Amino acid sequence: MSPRKKDAPVRGYGLTAWSRAVLAVIDRPEDTRRVGKARTYFRERTILDVRVRPGTVTALVQGSQVEPFETSLTMRTVEPDTVVALLRERDATDDLLAVARGEQPRILGSLVLPTEPADVRGDCNCPDEEPRCIHVLALGYEMAAQIDKSPSIALTMMGAEIATLLAHLRDDTDEPTRPVRVRAPEVVDFYGSGFTPPPLPSPPSIDVFADLDVAGLNRALRMSGVGPLDLGEVTDELAELYARLIRTPQTPPSGT
Q1: Which whole-number Å values give the CA distances from 206 to 59, 122, 243, 244, in the listed order?
Q2: Gap between the terminal Cα atoms of the chain
Q3: Phi and psi (nearest 5°) for 240?
Q4: Are residues 55 and 165 in the same domain?
């Protein structure tokens, strides 16, 4: 006769308020067959490779087949900034520090934890088409046990990690940046009042279109979209405009 297998230590779950709140939306006490089998899986520690991420829990649950089943819980997450704002309204921001100490404050729990079965969706690749199959229930019991030990896991499950909530709280309490007043630059009169600037210089009168090379002007006009047939007409108009400018007497600006 082979030696009797040593019994594994008895495991419990649902020992705290937050743990029971999660179980209330996952457990199916009326389905005694599935519940009994799921509890056996939990007690025998067949829930492997549990990974908790914001809004999702995944695990491998060793069932009746050789290969374990891929099982997950997906949560209807909460908005961390909204949670922090509601905590402020209720003067309960100390709840965040309480969770960091391993406590389960009531107000924070009421804002974050799931309240109805639709808040948690179970998925599994086993043949059972029930949304709460044996493996999903077993994972739910496993998470309840972990929440009993570390309440912050419940926050992560619901998409509101304790570090994220504390960051939002810190950002909200920072003193807003005060606008910087910029003084207008002081106007300095280097010349003193009554100074009259000298007249503008009078450049020599030349005909730029006749005395200078206008090849560069022609290239610029072509690049601006002027057609070859219109190039001469446009050049003539520019020459007439230039002639008007050089004939206009230049009046120096009045003094200040």
Answers
A1: 90, 90, 10, 13
A2: 118
A3: -65, -40
A4: yes
State both tokens at 170.
């810190």
7: Cα within 13 Å, side-chain hemisphere: 4
Radius of gyration of the chain (CA): 40
- The pLDDT of 146-173, averaged and rounded, is 89
Nearest CA to 172 out of 89, 97, 102, 95 is that of 89
pLDDT for 61-98, tens place per residue? 998 888 999 999 999 999 999 999 999 999 999 999 89
Residue 42: burial class (beta carbons within 10 Å; 0-12, 13-18, 19+): buried
Domain count, the chain: 2
User: Do 226 and 111 belong together in one domain?
Assistant: no
Tokens 């002639």 belong to 243
Cα distances (Å, whole numbers) of residue 23 to 62, 110, 188, 209, 219: 21, 15, 77, 93, 81
Is the pTM higher than 0.70? The answer reads no
Domain with 213, as residue range(s), is: 208-247
Q: Single out the residue of 8, 75, 4, 5 nearest to residue 41, CA to CA.
A: 8
Q: Is residue 202 part of a domain?
A: no
